Amino acid sequence: MSLTIQDAARRSGLSEPTLRYYEQVGLIGPVDRDPSSGHRRYREEDLDDLQILACLRAVGLGIAEMRTYQANRTRGHAAAGEQRDLLLRHAERIEAEIATLHVHLEYLQAKAALWDARDHGDAAAEAAANERVQGMYPRLEAMVLQ
């Protein structure tokens, strides 16, 4: 049984343009074509690759990393260490992004507390919030310089 690009897109969660692009850059395929129409026809087996790519894309891997991941998959156990290292490097990047987002969240909460104190005319709370905001500047500046 073969699937149209619409079927493959729906079942994989990837858009039709993304499927075409992934074929163009060599992440999938070449995809079989219908002899009479020339339209792409995906096999059920192709869906495994598409679903893996959809997951990798969802966690933020780039095209080059997805290409490496796919190449390592074809090598099987021989590439297990490389596959692990690729995923752990990306996990480290995500951890760094999470740490950055925590600082951003803390800053926004401190600024909101500052304005809340001003809104309520609470000078002591305003001073405490302002001190908290001021104390965050070195962390924010360090992030900008990275």
UniProtKB/TrEMBL annotation:
<dbReference type="InterPro" id="IPR009061">
    <property type="entry name" value="DNA-bd_dom_put_sf"/>
</dbReference>
<protein>
    <submittedName>
        <fullName>MerR family transcriptional regulator</fullName>
    </submittedName>
</protein>
<dbReference type="Pfam" id="PF13411">
    <property type="entry name" value="MerR_1"/>
</dbReference>
<dbReference type="InterPro" id="IPR000551">
    <property type="entry name" value="MerR-type_HTH_dom"/>
</dbReference>
<keyword id="KW-0238">DNA-binding</keyword>
<dbReference type="InterPro" id="IPR047057">
    <property type="entry name" value="MerR_fam"/>
</dbReference>
<feature type="domain" description="HTH merR-type">
    <location>
        <begin position="1"/>
        <end position="72"/>
    </location>
</feature>
